[in-house]
Design a protein that fits this description.
Elements: H1 5-16, H2 25-31, E1 36-40, E2 43-48, H3 52-61, E3 63-67, E4 72-77, H4 81-88, E5 100-107, E6 113-123, E7 126-131, H5 136-142, E8 149-152, E9 157-163, H6 167-173, E10 187-192, E11 195-200, E12 209-215, H7 219-229, E13 235-237, H8 240-249, H9 293-301, E14 307-314, E15 324-327, E16 331-342, E17 347-355, E18 366-373, E19 378-388
Parallel strand pairs: 3-13
Antiparallel strand pairs: 1-2, 3-9, 4-7, 4-8, 5-6, 6-7, 9-12, 10-11, 11-12, 14-17, 14-19, 15-16, 15-18, 16-17, 18-19
Helix pairs in contact: 3-8
């Protein structure tokens, strides 16, 4: 059968078009000068909106607004919600008081990381878990025997990240009275447009910043309120490329970028335990049983941990993105997962996963293999690298309370 050319084109466009838009999509589409989109869990999300370089500097010198609505969100509610979250995640949830947030992770029974994310304690019996991946079947299976209700609320709750030195000034100008009292990882509820917005002092940039969660039907009015309040404070909407640069300077990791989550890993040697990706500080053996506890403690006891995630400072100014790491220029010992020349740190920085004992007991004579384009030809460069602490930058304004009001 002869298919008309117009039908063939329509079918091709169907597979190339990202179908879902977030509640903020009308405002974002108006600002999308670059038309630079990527697929974030089925949503059309901007990699950049107007200029990825200037968007990064908006984070570090002004106030940057980033749509986090595609982030998977779960409501966990019930008399045994705390006990369930304690069983699920690595950290001791009993220490997480109402009105607080903590960064955590959760593992399968073999101790391999399924995902990392943030756990918001909204009340004594109500939590919100924000994650990169979708985990509802795992959560429901883990909840067997607990008096708890779990529901995905990704579509029902819209989210914004407001980050940068003038972010508090924007919220203050917008009339969110009392937001100045929020310390890092605090959260509180505020009135907005006949509903409630949850504002937490959290973010993915290592800078002063906040995240705001609002019912989807109030999303556009929240966007407009912030943009109007931020006119004199340099507020700009940004895409993921700029945010990714800021998170690297902060030394933060991204699932399925800096490590492969257990459900995505096809090859057994790609799996990672918390200690192997810098999340060992979360593990709380004293709190009792949690998913993966036995395997994690056994690996520690028998010294079976095979990898370590490190920060690197690389010689020169050419980013070492996805470069192979060598010891003494000969033995391959790992791979760089993220890299950039940092305008804030004035250093060539990277995150890398190395094989034990490299990056741990052996940190000398490390090199990265970089291929740089020079007049239509790739040139191989071996650049010296050294292990350095994370984060790569520390900004006092991130923790200052109350923040500066510009």
């Amino acid at each position: 059968m002869d298919i008309p050319a117009s039908s063939r084109r329509a079918a091709q466009l169907h597979f190339h078009t990202l179908r879902a838009g977030t509640p903020f999509q009308p405002r974002i589409d108006e600002l999308a000068k670059t038309q630079d989109w990527y697929d974030w869990s089925g949503y059309r999300a901007p990699a950049s909106l107007w200029d990825e370089e200037l968007e990064y500097f908006a984070i570090r010198s002004q106030a940057a607004l980033f749509d986090i609505s595609p982030m998977t969100k779960y409501r966990i509610d019930g008399p045994e919600a705390e006990a369930f979250c304690n069983r699920l995640t690595l950290r001791d949830v009993a220490r997480l008081k109402p009105g607080r947030v903590h960064y955590t992770a959760w593992c399968d029974d073999a101790g391999h990381v399924l995902d990392d994310g943030t756990l918001f304690r909204l009340s004594p019996t109500r939590f919100r878990l924000c994650a990169q991946e979708r985990h509802l079947p795992w959560l429901l299976d883990s909840a067997i025997g607990f008096d708890v209700a779990i529901e995905e609320e990704t579509e029902a709750v819209a989210g914004l990240a407001l980050q940068g030195p003038t972010s508090f000034a924007v919220l203050h100008e917008a009339g969110f009275a009392g937001v100045e009292r929020l310390k890092v990882f605090d959260l509180a509820e505020f009135a907005h447009d006949g509903a409630t917005v949850v504002i937490s002092r959290t973010g993915f940039t290592g800078d002063l910043g906040y995240e705001l969660f609002v019912p989807a039907e109030r999303a556009l009015s929240l966007w407009d309120r912030l943009m109007k309040a931020g006119e004199l404070h340099g507020i700009r909407a940004i895409g993921y490329t700029a945010l990714n640069r800021a998170r690297l300077e902060a030394g933060l990791i991204v699932a399925n970028s800096d490590f492969v989550t257990a459900e995505h890993a096809i090859r057994a040697d790609r799996l990672r335990m918390p200690d192997e990706i810098g999340l060992g500080f979360m593990v709380d053996p004293a709190k009792g049983h949690f998913n993966g506890r036995r395997a994690i403690l056994e690996a520690r006891k028998r010294k079976k941990l095979r990898h370590v995630l490190v920060g690197l400072e690389v010689e020169g100014n050419i980013p070492a993105e996805h470069a192979i790491v060598y010891h003494r220029k000969s033995r391959e010992v790992g791979l760089v997962s993220a890299a950039m020349w940092s305008p804030m740190a004035k250093r060539n920085i990277a995150l890398a996963s190395l094989e034990h004992p490299y990056g741990d007991r052996i940190t000398d004579d490390l090199w990265v293999e970089i291929y740089a384009m020079r007049e239509l030809k790739y040139e191989k460069m071996m650049k010296r690298a050294k292990v350095v602490p994370r984060p790569f930058i520390r900004l006092e304004r991130r923790t200052a309370t109350p923040p500066a009001d510009f």
